[in-house]
Structures are given as structure tokens and as C-alpha cells.
Amino acid sequence: MAFLIIFCSLLVTVLSGVYLIFKLQYRYWIKRGVPCFAPKFPFGTLRLHGKRRHLKETLDDTYREFKLKVPFAGMYFFSTPVPLILDLDLIHNILIKDFCKFHDRGLYYNERDDPLSANLLTLEGHKWKTLRSKLTPTFTLGKMKFMYPTILEVMNQFEQTLRELIKIQADVEIKDLLARFTTDVIGTCAFGIECNSLKDPNTEFRRMGKSVFQNKRHGVLGRALMTQLPGLARKLGVKDVGDDVSYFFLKVVRETIEFREKNNVRRNDFMDLLIQLKNGSSSHDGEEKLSFEEIAAQAFVFFVAGFETSSSNMTYSLYELAKDPDIQEKARRQINDTLKEHGGEFTYDALQEMTYIDQVINESLRKYPAAILLLRTANCDYQVPNSDKVIEKGTRVFIPLYSIHHDPDIYPNPEMFDPGRFAPEEVKKRHPMAFLAFGSGPRNCIGARFGRLQSRIGLASLLRKFRFKTCSKTPAVLEYSLTSTTLAPVGGMCLSVEAIGS
């Protein structure tokens, strides 16, 4: 009984101490004269209305309330004060002009216990800069042209799979099917492996890809520890990537490297470059070679980011085109007219001339961006231009990408899907930071060109051969998963599909 009393007393003391620390921290923005909604223990300003909502809604509340008043507003991510950047010129400074002062994202990684987490997305400082420069040659225009026939071959398999499927059922779960397509594309382009997930949706590559997004290793408290106290989390050996996923990718990369080196196989793909970096043949004098774990981490993030973002972009594009037959027909008409000019051949050059498809992709990325915000961390005290405010060293900065993309002052009637917004003359009228689907500056998405190529081939091929319509299972209003790290619709995406070509 005495032990229980002592334990309860200690627990009350600890909780009271934590509560007091939070309350003191919640005076951060008040003391600096930065406007902020009143935070609530323990979530800060993440739950402004007392209930769990999608983060994009919370960011949007702050963005709309303060965007015309100040260059940035205050938020609290649990107890951590976070500036939400509202001014597009300040965003330009952070991402481009003053990039040297904001070069890190501040994402959690644990190189020792969780090697796959230490990748180009999360790494910081000199290590990131060196790795970025080494990996950039993977995504040149020449490499895209080289990969084009491979992606087209997978696309032909996709068309066959879809044709067989609609013989049985008119309504198709298109999101999963597109994810299987991009899984097969990434598998062959990055690893030189035929994943065959179009033929079998339960292949290991597909299961592991789904696991990354659906089976989160930690709940709210675990993720709070990684974001709020990353140093402590690393000391405790906290991992982000699931053990099954980690084991699978380390095994696949190890076997791929061993097979290629033993049999002297060269494919001029992503894995080829990584192997060269491991052996030092692509390094400058004095540069360290990449370890096996570093190679696996880059292959992992390329696979995960590549299959999910492109499949989501195509899913949302087809959803909007199914709802608006006129836009769909306009896109199809340009595809067919362009192919006629190229003798019916679906060449790389023909694809580049399908500019309306690009506008559809951009408008889909505007309305449904894969990431709802960009993260940067100040590596020194930063004096905000034309202001007496300072963003202090170590402060993590939020850039509300989703809110900017849905700002009616930038994009009138933002909920309307209008590819015309991305006609060249319209783009020129807007601030360069008004569209941030791939980020901007030195730390923009390194695989943007590859992602666009996947989406272009996918949409152009599908619209050429199939017509998409809404059905009884198609959601009229989209709801988004609160647990997904991307903007993922709850319940997938079902569309009616009919073949229109041979």
C-alpha cells in the first residue's frame, strides 16, 4: 500500500512537472510578439477545435487567419514552437536565396540502429550535400530517355492487366492498380528486378511498399519522441522503419549487388550508380565510398517515394477526369493528335509534346500535393527581412504547401479542377513559390523528372485506350487518412473503366 502511494505521488509530480514545462514553453510566441492561436496541452495547436483533424486543416486555419498580417505566424507542435511561413518572398529566401541557413529538414533518422532511415530525404549538412551531388546524375535527361522504353514495357503489361480486369468487372479500384504499376516500374528501373505485382498483387515488393505507409511502427507518442527529442530517441535505439521492411530491402539490395558484381552485369540504372559509388569508381579523390547500408538506404527511399507519389498523382488525375468528361476528352484528343504527327509511335519526343497532360498532372499536384508541408530547420539565428523578428537557431520551420496551393487569392476557386491554370501564360503571372509540389531550391525533389515521366506515360497510355467515369462507389467528397504520411483517400479510389481502343 505504501509503495502504491509513493508511486502515485511520483507520477503526479512528474506529470505536474511536464505540464508546467509545457505551459512555460507555450509563452514562447507571446514573448516574441508573434501571433498564434492559443495552444492546448499536450498537442499544442495541432488540435485547435478539441478533436483530431488532418494536419492540413490545422495548418490552413493558421494560414488563413494570419496570412495578410505577418510574414510568419506561430504554432506549437506539442511543446515545440514552430513558425508557419506565410509570405511567399520569405519562402523564396528560406528555400533558395538563404538556403545555406536552412539546408536541413530536421527529419528523424538513426544511422546506427535503423540504416534505411538515413537517406537523402533525412540526412543533413555536408553528408547530404555530398550524397546529393553523387546521386544527381541518376536523374539527367539522358537517363530518363534511357529508362523510357522500360517504363513503356511495364505500361503495356498494365494495359493488358486492366483489359482482363474490366472483362470481369466494370468498376475498378484504380489506386491499388496504379500502385502496382509504379511498383513494377521502380523495381525494374532501380533494382533491375521484375516485381510482377501487376500479375500478383501479393508479391513481396508490393506488400513491403504498402507496409511502409500502412503499418506505422509508432503511434503519436513514439513519433513525438522522434520529432521532439531526436537525440534521446537515437540513444534509446528508436527505429522508424519496420523490421520486416528493413530486412527485406537490405536482403534485396545485398543479393542484387552480389549478382551484378559476380556476373559483371551492367544496366546503366540507379543500382549501377550506387554500386559504382560503393566501389569508388564514381568518387573524386579524397571522397569516401558509400557503405552497403548507405546504398540500401538510397535504394529504399527511391523505391518508396517513387511508387507512392506517382501512383497517387495519377489516381487523383483520373478521379478528376472521370468527374469532368470534357477535360478528359480534351486530353485524349491532344494525345491522339500528337501520336498522328509521330506516325502512331508512342515515342519519348511525342510524349514531350503532350503538354495538356503536363497541365493535368500539375493541377492534380496543386489540388492534391503528396506532401502538405515542407520542412526546414534554421542552422543559425535568422533575421527575417523587413522585420524585427528572428527565427532562432535550431527552430524547425513549416512551409504550408497545401494551404498555398488552395489559396483563393493565388488560385481563384481553388477546389475546381482546372488544368488551364498551368498554361504557360498563366504560370508566368504567379509568384514562383506559388507551386511547390516538388519543393524548390537545392533541396527540391531529386526524382521529380522521373516521377513526371512515370505519370505522363501512365496517363497518356490509359487515356488513349480507356475511358474513365465515376460509379456508385466513387466518393463525391474525398476523406483523407489521418494516419497516412501522404494525402491518401480513405477507402481507395473506385472508377468505372471501359476500353476504347485495340
UniProtKB/TrEMBL annotation:
Membrane topology, from the record: Peripheral membrane protein
Necessary cofactors: heme
Keyword Nucleotide-binding listed: no
Cellular compartment(s): Endoplasmic reticulum membrane; Microsome membrane
Residues annotated to bind heme: 445
GO cellular component terms given for this protein: endoplasmic reticulum membrane
Family named by the database record: Belongs to the cytochrome P450 family.
Protein name: Cytochrome P450
Organism, as annotated: Hermetia illucens
